Amino acid sequence: LFLPGDNLLENLSHIYSMQELKYIADIVIVNREYKDEDSQGLYMSDNVFSLWTHSYRGMDENAKRMFLDLWFSKNQSFMLDENLYPDKLVNQMGRKLEMATFQYEPYSIIGSSETESKGSEMVTCLTFARHYNMTPVLVVNDEGYWGDIFDNWTGYGLLGNLVEDKADIGFSALYTWESDYYFLDLSKPLVRTGITCLVPAPSLAAGWTTPLYSFSTTMWAAVGSMFFVCIFVQFFMHYFHAKIYDDTNQSLKLLDRSILCVLKLFVQQVVTTRETPPGRSGKYFMGLLFTFSLFLSSSYSSGLSSIMTIPRYGRPINTVEEFAESKISWGATQDAWTMSLKGVEDPT
Fold this sequence. Notes:
Strand content: 5-15%
Subcellular location: Cell membrane
Helix content: 25-40%
Radius of gyration: 42 Å
Low-confidence stretches: none
Order of helices and strands: HEEEEEHEEEHEHHHHH
Transmembrane segments: 219-242, 284-307
Mean pLDDT: 84
Strand order of the largest sheet: 1-2-3-4
Pfam families: Lig_chan
Shape: elongated
Main location: membrane
Membrane topology: Multi-pass membrane protein
């Protein structure tokens, strides 16, 4: 609703020359036709106001002035009691609907005429235009595909045609990109789609690393810890026995003997009596160590058998997080595939 200002004729001329009238259907402009010099406001004395709008509909002259009614301030009544906001959208009388698109199967297939144009989104928009009695006009960009929008409200490609008002609507597999939300109105999605990311297949693991796959990393850490604990316990038992006989000068030899003894047990080798700790406690300790090494070697052998039977591959990339951690350089056939990543700080 536009009310009269100080310079009425200048205001009206400015209003009807606005580019925005092309996109706004409901407008009422108030013009003072008669002014009582003694009146001090709209409702005072005998002022007469004419109410105007613009045509909006039709092939041409969409900003043409159209008379609606007269309003009299004296008795606060209308002359014709017309609807001040008629529905101009149901039947648009052939008004042009400029549609930005490009050849992108199966969504938009541009033909030489309206009947030859195909594609899911193309047919949807053509049906929409026919339903509201509009004349579809294709605005085709042969280069740039989806294009991009810049901060100064310019752009190129399909998005550029929209932001620069060269088209009313646009389609061709457009996504709900956040970066474009600040410049355009986005409709309700018609189709749910996704992007398939192709990554290299996992390669065969190096041959020399095959024996390491029998146990997990945690299991290897447990085996290593157990190895050093057994060395420490056996060395302590040797050292305590030597201290009783006042023979602690051979500490380095006792440590070597303990390391060699535990290492032999872990790889299923024969241990001599001299290498075992003396006394009853030494026998109990060696019995437990023999039992532990038996279970350890059996588990390792069965795991190695399965690894040797089935080829072992490197770590595959199955999730977005794994893809981000892989540090693989990636690319796409067009900049539009990266639009969803604009301004994103989280790498996943």
